Amino acid sequence: MTNNNKTNKExxxxxxxxxxxxxxxxxxxxxxxxxxxxxxLDNVEFIFVNARSLGPxxxxxxxxxxxxxxxxxxDVFIVDVGINKANIKSIEESVTYLVEHxxxxxxxxxHSNKYxxxxxxxxxxxxxxxxxxxKIGSAAASIVQDFLGDDQTKRLRLLGALSDREIRLTRxxxxxxxxxxxxxxxxxxxAWQDKVFLDKITRRLIKNPQIxxxxxxxxxxxxxxxxxxxxxxxxxxxxxxxxxxxxxxxRILAVTVLDRDxxxxxxxxxxxxxxxxxxxxxxLITRAVNDNxxxxxxxxxxxxxxxxxxxxxxxxxxxNSGGSKGAYRLTIKKDNLLIFLSxxxxxxxxxxxxxxxxxxxKQYFKKGKRGKRNKKRYKHPRNNSSHTRSERRSKSQYAGNxxxxxxxxxxxxxxxxxxxxxxxxxxxxxxx
Length: 432
Known about the structure:
By secondary structure, the chain is α/β, with parallel strands linked by helices. The protein contains 15 helices and 19 strands. The relative contact order is 0.09.
């Protein structure tokens, strides 16, 4: 983690009041809750935003912060919110105003925040904000925990890290799986339909970090609504989505769904599910909100792929974009979509293998009673069969390496063939 202002954790003390701008996901909620535990809850204001709305909402909020004496008692936090070129000037002006009027501004995040290869965090540093930028791929809750957390907030950090996949959801954390899935769905629904819920659940986590998420009535109610809506959208995408194969090696598919505008916060979930089902990097293209001349584009990797989606997304050259190597989103003008997909196709030809992550477990050997090494039976992660390495080699000589090659409608797995009968492979010109 880097901190340009060298703020000392041991000597840091909170001021009486705080305003926290958090991202509209579980990591953002948990990060805001870790910050909120350092303050009196009556004196903390939570505002939940995304990369596109941070600039306008920050600018609107500081219009009431002209009292210099009050600002001396104020801390402003921005946690887990990436910044993009479209509103960085507005954010810099707002942060400069706050600092000049005696407020302290802190930024905690791990997004790369780059535009055309140039880091946008320089704007915040120029405005004298305290920037805590963690390693790309780490959760904002982990960065906030290192500076502001204590033993009671460790679970909040864990939930944020599991949600952002900084930590894998292994058997060690299986007790959190059900509650985390419910919280993720409830927060996504709340961010789309009820922003008050995000404030409510954040304050609830502050009061009781060990809350039983699976028995909380509000979380379960919103999670059910979100999951039903997500399943409905997924069936619609399988049934009506148009699929264009951008590249075979590595496998990149563009999925276009333009007859619905109620995706809300489910775009990332839908794209991630398609990536897992079809074993490809997915470019999900839907209608943009509040802009009839643009498309909302969400890009996700499958678990097996390790394509740099940040490099892929920045081929669009659009200012309204952001994300990381594993997930990216952007808003692009309709006239520029074909150019973007053509650039992705050309970009994929220049990539060098391997494109797949190595997820096969290591082989371990242990000594027998007589000093001989006994081979441990190997269990392949894709099935329940158990073979030694030599047995697997002998079988592969006869089986060969068969790779699925996509044809019209053949990209889906067996589980999705029944629901995806109407999906089709289309040409670039059909996207218009």
